[in-house]
Write a structure and sequence with these properties.
The complex is a heterodimer of chains A (266) and B (101).
Chain A: H1 15-40, H2 49-77, H3 83-88, H4 108-129, H5 135-163, H6 167-181, H7 192-199, H8 209-223, H9 245-254, H10 256-260
Chain B: E1 15-21, E2 29-35, H1 39-50, E3 58-63, H2 75-79
Antiparallel strand pairs in B: 1-2, 1-3
The chains are: A mainly alpha (266), B alpha+beta (101).
Chain lengths: 266, 101
């Protein structure tokens, strides 16, 4: 993860828009960095070799996306930080990922259901972002969209297999869906940051993304013979740095090398 | 979907052979094998295990059980008879100048 010295896009932005874009890129990047790290925890532990590699592939895709997004955030921020500083030297309160991605990896069903809920939302969001007027962001989104299309296909199959599998796999998949449901709403929340950037044609409007996500999730959940949870209460907080205790623990492990040996390179 | 406890599966998910096309128009080559419960998973597992570094542009997966193979004991009757009949090889012709052989 080396930062090239290329200048940022020539898109003219006032200070407020630039600040909002840095925040927006951190949200996109943090979601992927944290979820990628959670997935990487399956390395050597997945149910079969093939799935071990598949999960590691998805983890690497997400970490690759995070690298590009955080690098762009650092360039626009212009404060002398690079993507490594953003990843390894921020405290949990400065991470702006949704809470869903930081929850412990749980069992295989939990990991698969979470990845499905996230990837479907990411897919429709990236589809919109690929049309962003910000060329670099649009380019990153177009690349990530291809990867995400495969993630949806892969974990979507697993949701159906687990849900429509044995009594135990059905029970575990349903438990995962029930536990995760109240964390899904945060993916579609919009605040002043989103509003500013949507008006400028830079960010994705999540209002049309949510019904598409809901329709696809409903379809797969039905084919998986699972029941869609009905709880309307949605947990929030990650976007403004109010995290579960799980993120701090994860970051302490993820960041220990850079914290112990500042500036270490290999 | 095939359960791992069905006869003939040896407690494992069924085996699939993976064939990879390195580039458009090139012949498919055997890459290895994967375990999977159905064709879609076999294709996905093959993609994840064998094409991570841009090794191919197309994949075939075939249930290993569908492949009919010669046995080592067939080696004699199948492959030996060719060697003592040099007239089967078109090597008695001289190539015209300018043709690369």
């Amino acid at each position: 993860m080396t930062a090239p010295a290329t200048p940022s896009t020539a898109l003219a932005m006032d200070g407020a828009t630039g600040g909002a874009l840095v925040e927006y890129l951190l949200r996109l990047g943090d979601d992927r960095l944290v979820l990628g790290h959670r997935l990487s925890e399956w390395c050597g532990h997945a149910p079969i070799l093939e799935e071990d590699i598949a999960l590691a592939n998805i983890a690497l895709d997400l970490i690759g996306q995070a690298t590009l997004l955080l690098r762009l955030a650092a360039q626009i921020e212009g404060a002398g930080r690079d993507e490594n500083a953003l990843a390894y030297l921020r405290e949990s309160i400065d991470y702006h990922n949704v809470l869903m991605v930081e929850l412990p990896r749980g069992d295989f069903a939990f990991t698969v259901v979470r990845q499905f809920l996230f990837s479907v939302a990411a897919f429709y969001q990236l589809e919109a972002l690929a049309r962003s007027v910000h060329e670099e962001l649009a380019g990153i989104a177009a690349k990530a969209l291809k990867e995400t299309r495969y993630h949806v296909r892969h974990v979507g199959e697993w949701v159906i297999k687990l849900g429509d599998g044995t009594a135990e796999s059905h029970e575990r998949a349903q438990a995962a869906l029930d536990a995760l449901w109240r964390f899904t709403g945060e993916m579609f929340l919009m605040d002043a940051v989103d509003d500013t950037l949507v008006r400028a044609g830079i960010a994705a409007d999540m209002a049309p993304v949510e019904p598409k996500w809901h329709a696809q999730v409903t379809d797969v959940v039905r084919r998986a013979t699972l029941a869609l949870p009905e709880g309307a209460y949605m947990q929030r907080g990650g976007r403004v740095g109010r995290h579960t205790e799980h993120l701090g623990l994860m970051l302490s492990e993820m960041q220990i090398l850079q914290r112990s040996y500042p500036g270490a390179k290999w | 979907m095939v359960a791992a406890d069905e006869p003939g599966t040896n407690g494992q998910w069924p085996l699939w052979e993976v064939f990879l096309q390195p580039s458009g128009g090139a012949p498919f080559e055997h890459a290895g094998s994967v375990h999977a419960v159905d064709a879609e998973s076999a294709l996905q597992n093959a993609r994840d295990v064998y094409t991570r570094r841009g090794e191919g542009v197309n994949l075939w997966v075939v249930p290993s059980a569908a492949i009919v193979a010669s046995a080592p004991s067939d080696a004699g009757p199948f492959f030996d008879p060719g060697n003592d009949k040099p007239y089967r090889h078109p090597q008695f012709y001289t190539s015209p100048r300018g043709v690369r052989v």
